[in-house]
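Example complex used in Figure S2.
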Amino acid sequence: MELVEAIILSVLAASTPLLIAATGELVTERSGVLNLGVEGMMIVGAACGFAGAWLTGSIFIGALFGIVAGTMMSLIFALMALGLAVNQVATGLALTILGVGLSGLIGAGFVGERITPAVHLFIPGLTDIPLVGRVLFGEDGFVYVSIALVLGVWWFLYRTRAGLILRACGDNHVSAHALGYPVLRIRTFAVMFGGACAGLAGAYLPLAYTPFFIPGMTAGRGWIALALVVFSSWRPGRLVVGAYLFGAVTILQLHAQGWGVGIPSQFMSALPYLATIIVLVLLSRARSGGSTAPAALGTVFVPDR
Amino acid sequence: MLDSTIDSLNSGESPLLRTIGLTKRYGDFLANDSIDIDIRSGEIHALLGENGAGKSTLVKAIYGLIQPSAGEIRWRGERITLSGPSDARRRGIGMVFQHFSLFDNLTVAENVALGLDGKESFKDMSARLERVSKTYGLPLDPRREVWQLSVGERQRIEIVRALMQEPKFLILDEPTAVLTPQEADQLFVVLERLKAEGRAVLYISHKLEEVKRLCDTATILRGGRKVATCNPGLETAASLARMMVGGEIKEVKAASGRKTTVPRLVVNDLSLAPGEAHGVRLEHISFELKGGEILGIAGVAGNGQDELFAALSGERLSKDPGTVVIEGIAAGHLSITQRRKLGAAFVPEERLGHGTAPRMKLSENALLTGHAASGMVHRGFINAAATLDTVDRATETFDVRKAKRDPEAASLSGGNLQKFIVGREILRNPAVLVVNQPTWGVDAGAAAVIRQALLDLAAAGAAVLVTSQDLDELTEIADRIAVMFHGKLSAPLATSEATRERLGLLMGGSSLEPKEAAHAVGA
Amino acid sequence: MQLVLEKRAERSGTIALVSPLIAIGLTILTMVILFAILGKNPLLALHAYFIAPLTDGYSLQEIAVKATPLVMIAIGLSLCYLANAWNIGAEGQFLIGAVAGSWIAVRTQGTDAGAWVLPAMLVLAAAAGALYALIPAICKVKFGASEILTSLMLVYVADLFLDYLVRGPWRDPHGFNFPTTAEFDPVATVPLLIEGGRLHLGSIIALLVVAAAAILLARTIKGFEIRVVGAAPRAARFGGFNANQLVILTFAVSGALAGLAGIIEVAGPVGHLQPGISPGYGFTAIIVAFLGRLNPLGILIAGLFLALTFIGGEQAQIAMKIPLDVTKVFQGILLFYVLACDSLILYRFKLVFPNRQVTRGAG
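Predicted assembly (1191 residues):
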């Protein structure tokens, strides 16, 4: 019982940064923009988030630092890919490389430092319920924010006019432009939202997941978030499933290593990455009839006048 | 005059919309030359004319998309200046374009919502959408996604979207261009209802039978001017066609040189499903083309010409090799490179991006189609001198004007690039040349050069297939002319027998002869 | 009034030549600001980065050694990118090539194997890299899966595989439990060009690769096909070129070159297989490829330039305690400036005054 609860809690923790980052990227891609710089934005968010918390002693400020950092990084992307019509793939890669370097610079001074990690909710009576108590009522703020975020994005995309217009831009920017909508401006906001989420997701790692900062601590999570968006067919509901599934695979293979299954640990660690490839292949094959990716994803748009 | 007849019929009722001397100039080009048109409530008014006659320009001015250079527009008697389409819509002018602004992966309701201003709640709008669509006999399920819909159903969305803004005047641009006959009939019912409600409809079309059936009044444009206003019901399709294309019958071109006895290009019962959602299905196309002759294919764009080109060039393969036979060899399953090796050459409609790689040099574009058979490639290595030589020869023979010896394709003007593209193919001495829209968007001088080149090529013994929307062009250079309509090809007529009226009728879809053997005798 | 982007009629030749210089200039400017923020003397820092490494024979050799894998991998990547196939997994192909080649070295360790060993290692490494790269290529061509994500995932897999081998079955029994293989025999080592120096045969191979790529792209029909398929896919189809085939070909060649670079690095400067044999060469090569404008000669220059910054970065760290991460930041910023300046080759800026003439192409 205890073990099951512990596993569920660790799965939640492992999945949360993926969920936050992927939700942001989902909005970006839904508007038609492919931002491969998620890893770079996340890792800068991690460094800045830790710096903020260490300097002020407040996790909340740290999270804000992370959000701002991610947003600023995404603005560079928007300037290049939307303002200058630079190839989105190249720009995203450049952002990742820059981000890794920047985070190393910023975080260098903080290696080895510790902070008080994010507090977990505690409601007397509720949190003590076996199995579900801590899962539902004992989590840290980031987890609740991640859920609220996904719900909010779902509501925004499917229940508001603004969300409809955003989806239209991602489907057919020519038609959207013809109908008079400011495609580039909408995409810029979507990119900034993605950056904010990536920054927050990155900040989660040194603020709640582990209470310290190590260079490279995102370990490819940004790339996994990108794969998760594809896995979710660009739908928030499926994104939740995907993120938790992925978190589960990650945690289970860690535990499996401990159970002495006899398979070398590196093979187990490779499972999440191999699983991503297999899922991508299977999903791409299964697509028939209308495609599920936003039709204008990744294409350059220079409005004609 | 017919004009005064109509005026007296409707006297006492001033027109809903009137243009007086409407003129639109683009540089030296006069797209609309002092056009007067009256449109009344409760009437379906046709706007007729060939491609390039000025219909689109006139209508864009009425809808506020462009500003006239001179003249005025009066709406309900009051002179107005439109600041843009939303201003037009506010006054009650709606328009359904030929090219839809739709979103494939969104639902019908979402598509309509995006075209409205969002003041209604989505739920209310959806309900109203369903009501309006049912009322007009264009039922739409708000929840379906657009990619699942047929072209006719997609057009319904555009129409209902326009109708939901309660227009007093609705403009439809070539609405039946992409509809099946049944869908067109459904559309006519809707238009009759609009008319009964007292609205006005401006119906742009080139399809004469339709116009006769449907419209109360017709204004005919030619060369940017209004040439007539009449009651189409009182005219014959023939007389309408004559007004549209001009009454002069061109001199018959003398029969060109010798013809080979064995056909160099044969198409046997070619049927092909459309490659993409909005494509046209080809149906049982058959014809034969001997060396030394030019076969022209007439027809309004969008009736399958692109699909036919793709099938002939090998960009789309046929299951049955025998559907396309080049120089006696079954080629339906062969790639474009293999067909070029057989002696075929192709000039597509789109110069930049299809016929050439826009940002690459002319010599590289010469290599693009010449690599298989022209000595440009030896053991995998490119013979740059040979590619440049082609550029030089094309430049000299076809008078290609350019800024330097080997510029990028995109830097040439339309006419000069087209001369190059046609030239590079002709210089390979093809046995068969398939050309799609040889002089579209090309200045008159370049057009003349290109047409002469095609004539010379045929005189030298090649089989030339020319698809064109320009009837003048076809009557000038082709020995026989066939017409494409909705993916079917009429039996070819000898040019001497292909009178303007007859061609106009075929292009409009009427009297399409049942297919017999494709071996129509040349003149 | 608005500043808008507008497509040029013909790509601007002057900008194409001048843009990398402008980009470098802007980057240096930004770096000066960065150094100032870090509290380091900007002029001294620039000297340490760019001038100092050029003054010493040894560091000149180091630059060549460092540039070798960068250039080799970047050449392969440039072929992919020209064809619009995005190989992001060069790092993984590098590692797999290193592993495959090392297999022969480890198996023939201590035996009296002949001179065939090294060539065999090179060939096997290239083959393994090519096969590893074919995985994402086939996933893209056959299944439509994004090659960016699949090739990247395989990097992590390759990294873990290498880790397993050097900690497990291939670990040097006399190596004091360090995760590394034993030193390779001389016959399994890439020969040096200068006695006592660092320059090795790999640099010659890299130069040959550059030359081969230059000839391929400029003079052969295959190179032409690669360029057209990326630049104008519909025209490529009209020319009879098969896009899928070209994706497979470019990925295979790219993987082979990355794998070859991997084994050369292991069997050359390093001398044995260990984790972390690549300080991110596969990713830095992406920068080199773009910096070199996907042109073989440009890549050679860009590779040498970036190698210079690596060596300079190390020297700056020793001399002025500037963190190594600054090099990464410099490279990222440089890439941004190059991409931004290059955009001006195809587009220009225009001031637009609002007017009521909205022309929309419809009907």
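Chain A has a mean pLDDT of 87. The CA atoms of residues 17 and 201 of chain A lie 4 Å apart.
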